[in-house]
Amino acid sequence: MSNSKRLRIAVQKSGRLSDDSIALLKAIGIKLNIRDRLLIAHSTNEPIDLLRVRDDDIPGLVMDGVVDLGFIGENELEEKSLERKAAGKPFEYETLRRLDYGGCRLSIAVPNEMDYDGVQSLDGKEVATTYPYLLERYFEEQGINAKAVMLTGSVEVAPRAGVADAICDLVSTGATLEANGLVEKEEIFRSKAVLIKRVGGDMSDEKQALINRMMPRVDGVLLAKE
Ligand code: PRT
Ligand code: ZN
Q: What are phi and psi of 17, to 5 degrees?
């Protein structure tokens, strides 16, 4: 549990969400002393410590109460929440704000040459993805009898490599799909970055007061950028 007196915030160490998350913290007046190789960064003007980790670890850190707040993409958050629920682990959190960056969609794409006539065309097929829980949920909702094949990377080459018939991956511009001879067919989840808070365990009055001071400033920054 996060019983540290300082507010602990998890951010992606290096990746698509890192710069915008750090920029938002700075924009709300939190001074940070970030040294590239270090896991922890301390604020010099507020009782805040940043935990800099892989984005995959952020939902679990919040749901286990190891950190108080986290910046994470909804795709990763929802996937991990479903995975932890299935494993009987804590899977709850509170979304404080939906943010204005990290936008993408999780979509099913098929090879150009595949005969595709609606989602039922996936019946009996294997679909490579890094998001098996989101994909299996979609198959269930659609009543499709297809199989999610878990791959942690290079999902877009799976059909060409003969590992799967189709893929389900994050898309923003669509350039990656096009470069790999794939066509986007079904959007199954829309995502943005969110700021989340733990729900388990007590939150000290001091920490809650700090969060309460931060949130109007976050709203101000989001509004100014609209
Ligand atoms: O090392 P770590 O585990 O922390 O990072 P990561 O490699 O898992 O994640 P990262 O940094 O790539 O992405 C972090 C988060 O950014 C994702 O979980 C999403 O919430 C968000 N995001 C937004 C994206 C994209 N856009 C995106 N386009 N994440 C990944 N992509 C990839 C996608 O997987 C595909 O390979 O970009 C490619 C497609 O892009 P287009 O523009 O060619 O369509
Ligand atoms: Zn990751």
A: -100, -10
Indicate if the pLDDT at residue 101 is higher than 90.
Answer: yes
Q: What's the mean pLDDT when you consider all of the chain?
A: 97
Range of the domain at 112: 104-191
Q: Note whether 147 and 71 are same-domain residues.
A: no
User: How far apart are alpha carbons 80 and 10 in whole angstroms?
Assistant: 15
Q: Is residue 2 part of a domain?
A: no
Distances (CA, A) of 26 to 30, 31, 35, 44, 189: 5, 6, 15, 12, 30
Total domains in the chain come to 2
Question: Which whole number is the average pLDDT over 157-184?
Answer: 98
Q: Which pLDDT does position 225 carry in this prediction?
A: 87
Ligand 1 contact via 170 beta carbon (within 6 Å): yes
Alpha helices in 143-204 (DSSP H): 175-179
Residue closest to 131 by CA, chosen among 177, 99, 169, 180: 169
Considering the domain architecture, whether residues 38 and 115 belong to the same structural domain is answered as: no
Let me know whether 93 and 113 are in one domain: no
Residue nearest to ligand 1 atom 5, measured at CA: 15
Q: Is the ipTM of this complex over 0.95?
A: yes
pLDDT at 45 over 70: yes
Rounded average pLDDT over 31-48: 94
Ligand 1 probe mutation, 51, 101, 104, most atoms within 8 A of CB: 104
What CATH number should be reported for the domain holding residue 114?
3.40.190.10
Q: Where are the alpha helices (DSSP H) in the chain?
A: 18-27, 58-63, 74-86, 132-142, 175-179, 205-225
